[in-house]
Amino acid sequence: MLDREILRNDPKKVRKAAGDKGEPCPLDSWLELDERRRHLLSLSEDLRRERNDLSQRVAERKKQGLDAEDIIRESREAGDRISRLEQELGGVDRQMLEVELSFPNIPDPDVPVGRDESANIVLRTFGEPVEDPDLLPHWELLGDRMDQDASGAITGANFILLRGWAAWLQRNLINWMMDHNSRSDMEEVWVPFLANRESMTATGQIPKLEEDMYHVEKDDLFLVPTGEVPLTNIYRDSIIPEKDLPISLCGYSPCFRREAGSYGKDTRGLNRVHQFEKVEMVRLVRPEDSSAAHEDMVAHAERMLELLELTYRVSLLSTGDLSFAAAKCCDLEVWAPGQGKWLEVSSVSNFRDFQARRGGIRYRPSDGGKPRFVHTLNGSGLALPRVMAALLETGQTPDGGIRLPKALAGFAGVDRLGETDPASRAL
C-alpha cells in the first residue's frame, strides 16, 4: 500500500509507476473519494463544535433556572447529523481502502523501465553454460521416478509424484537448504500452510491475484502460494522494538498456484507445476537498512547455488517483469544443460514499506519517536523443483547415474544416484 501523502501530492509518480508496471491506476477515483472524505470530516468537525456550544448554552440556562428544551433539541439534531456523517465517512473510508489496494508499489529509481523480461539486465553470471545435445532433460533422467500417471490419478495435471531416489533427493535438498539458512543467522520457523484473507492481503496476493490462489471457500482460507505469506504475517499489526531489528527468518512450505502453464511456458517435467516445495527467507529491517539487506540476501542465495555447483545468472528485473508488490527484484536463474535453458530458482525482492503498510507492521525507534513502518524483503532460499531439475541435468554421467555436488553429498552421505548405483537402488 502506498503512503496517502504520495497519492495526494505526487500523482504523476503514482501514474508513471503503474504505467511502467502495466497496472491500472484508478487515481482519479481515489482523489475524488479523498476530497469527499475531507469535506465530510470538515462538516463533522463543524457540527461537533456547534454541539459543544449548544451544550454550554444548555448548562448556562439550567444554571440560571431557565428552560433549555429548545437548545437540547438542537443539540440532539446535531448529534444525529454527526452520526449520519460518520456512517457516510465510514463508507468512504472503505471505498478508499479498496481503491488503495489496487495501486502497485513504486519501482526503485534504478529499476530498468521496460514492458517485459526482455528489458531485464543481467548483472553477473557464475560458471559457463554447457551446451551439449547429448545431455538428457531431467524428465528422461527421472523416468518412472516421476510418476505422472499416479499424480494425475490422485490430483490432476501439473502435480508431481516422486518415487525412490527422486523423492529422497527432494527431501534431502529441503533439509540441506533449511540447515544452511538456519546456520546463517536466520530463525527457523515452521509455518501453517493455509492463510486467511487478511494475511494474503497484507503481502499483496489479494485482491490482485485472488483468482490464481487455491481457496477453501467454507473457511475462507487460502493454500499458501509462498512461504512469504505466513512468515511476514507473524508480525502483522505489531510494533517491534528497534533493538529487535533486523528480523531474519527462514521456513519451508509447499506452494500452491493455479497459474502454472497459463502463460504458454514449457510445462514438461518439473519446470512449472501447481504445487512445488520452497524454502523462503524473509527479513524485516529499518528503512535505511533495506538496500543493503537486499544485496546481502541475493549474495546468500548465490552462495547456495555455488555450493550446489550450478551455473547461474543474476538479473535485475525491469518494471514490466516486476511483481505488483515489489519495488526491486533480482532473479537468480540456473542453467539446465539438458534443456539448454535458464530456470528461475529464486526471486529476491525488496518491498520497502508497501507490505508493512498493508499489514500494519511498524517498529518503535529506540529514541522514543513515533512508530515507523518497517521494510520487508523476501527471497527463495531456494525453490524446488527447478533446482532439482538443474542438479539432475548438470550431474548426469555417461553411465546413467547422477553425481551429487560435494556439499549435498557430504550432507546426505551419498555422492551418486541412479539405477546403476547399488546404494541408490537401496533407497
Rg calc: 28 Å
Distance between the termini: 49 Å
The biggest beta sheet reads: 8 strands, mixed
Tally the helices: what do you get? 14
Overall geometry comes to elongated
General description of the model:
The protein is α+β, with helices and mostly antiparallel strands and 427 residues long. It has helices at residues 4-9, 11-21, 27-63, 69-100, 138-142, 148-154, 164-182, 197-202, 228-233, 290-307, 354-359, 386-395, 406-412, 422-425, and strands at 121-126, 187-188, 194-196, 215-216, 221-223, 238-241, 247-256, 275-285, 312-316, 328-336, 341-350, 361-364, 372-373, 375-383, 402-403, 416-417. The strands form 4 sheets. An 8-stranded mixed sheet has the order 1-9-10-11-14-8-7-2.
Summary?
By secondary structure, the chain is α+β, with helices and mostly antiparallel strands. The chain is built from 14 helices and 16 strands. It has helices at residues 4-9, 11-21, 27-63, 69-100, 138-142, 148-154, 164-182, 197-202, 228-233, 290-307, 354-359, 386-395, 406-412, 422-425, and strands at residues 121-126, 187-188, 194-196, 215-216, 221-223, 238-241, 247-256, 275-285, 312-316, 328-336, 341-350, 361-364, 372-373, 375-383, 402-403, 416-417.
Characteristics of this structure?
single chain; 427 residues; alpha+beta; 14 helices; 16 strands; disordered C terminus
Task: Please specify the SSE layout and strand pairing.
Blueprint lengths: L3 H6 L1 H11 L5 H37 L5 H32 L20 E6 L11 H5 L5 H7 L9 H19 L4 E2 L5 E3 H6 L12 E2 L4 E3 L4 H6 L4 E4 L5 E10 L18 E11 L4 H18 L4 E5 L11 E9 L4 E10 L3 H6 L1 E4 L7 E2 L1 E9 L2 H10 L6 E2 L2 H7 L3 E2 L4 H4 L2
Parallel strand pairs: 2-7, 6-12
Antiparallel strand pairs: 1-9, 3-5, 4-5, 7-8, 8-14, 9-10, 10-11, 11-14, 12-13, 15-16
